[in-house]
Amino acid sequence: MGTMLTNKNSxxxxxxxxxxxGNACFYSVQNLLSSSLLSKNLKIKIYRTxxxxxxxxxxxxxxxxxxxxxxxxxxxxxxLRRVFEPKRDKVTREWRKLHxxxxxxxxxxxxxxxxxxxxxxxxxxHVACMGEGRGVHRVLVGKPEGTRPLGRP
Length: 153
Hints:
The radius of gyration is 20 Å and the shape is elongated. The protein has a domain at 12-111. It is mainly α. A two-stranded antiparallel ribbon has the order 1-2. The protein has seven helices and two strands. The two termini are 35 Å apart. The model has no long low-confidence stretch (mean pLDDT 86). A hairpin with a 6-residue loop joins β1 and β2 (95-96).
């Protein structure tokens, strides 16, 4: 599955590639998610066991900005709209897409951004409990030694 590292330590490219892989997986199971033969609970299980792990691989180390949070929510809402199908408006009798509030009511489990944030906190807890000799722990609690050189960095 691999992760993308950039020289600017930006996570945007990683999230972009994860969403691209998630979209590929979503379109490969799109017929299952739009099938009327499967129950909504089974479709949600397909989403949570097949699509979501691909998108969230390595999310423990992400530092999300509002832009990335929005992109993740847009992806999740697209999948959930496919699962819960359009509804017919009672007044105009026309088909319409579900609004975000309706999706959050129909999908009681925590949204994708909360899952990412909980995994980040869980990873931080693991790092805090690591031994002093581990490199990850030293990066978290350590202080750089030495002095900076004169002039521009």
